[in-house]
Amino acid sequence: MVALAAAACTSDSGGSGGRISVEEFEGKAKSVTAGAPCPFAFDVAGALKAAGANRPVAPDGPAAEGDSSPAEPAQPARPSGPTSPAMPAIPAVPARSSINCSYLVGDADLSLTVIASPAAKTAQNFALPLLMHDGAMAMDQATTFVSTLVSPGSARVTPGAGTAAFYRVPVSGDGDIGLVVSVEGHDDADAPLPDLTGAHLETLAVELGKAVKG
């Protein structure tokens, strides 16, 4: 996972009005306090309607949670010693930050997690553990999922029941930002929700992703 997260090449830069920069996002993430309202104006009701899901919406506390992690330097390989095993080299991991906002939509939990990094093309990889968990992806499915980057302004749903989606946010300047949208029913977590999975969830992710802006 660390190797996947550290893989980065070039960036998609924007600068057009409304696009958010990674620096702006990092500021929002650091300013989020427990129980604070979501810093993004997600129109969940409107997005649900566009996705064909007629569900009531209510905040599901905590309304927002923020997190920031500094960059981690590369670690060289270490040969085995008298009391320690050999360790492979570990690549550098870029800094990253995230904001999570939760909503109750009918009988389901809707989780919106925005992940950002100043390193190019890394948001999708940083989102992978969450996508694997919420999308119930096996390792081979996860490898396939991240083998092709989602284009800025587009979304991709996890394979199988399609319970999680990744939307790549168009950014201003360098870096990368992505939105993970996932749903879980209250009655049976293993039962898919027809109006909040697959193509419906992809549309929902695209609509909600429009709110991640400066």
UniProtKB/TrEMBL annotation:
Top-level lineage group: Bacteria
Annotated region (Disordered), positions in chain: 53-91
Protein name: Lipoprotein
Organism, scientific name: Yinghuangia aomiensis
Source taxonomy: Bacteria, Bacillati, Actinomycetota, Actinomycetes, Kitasatosporales
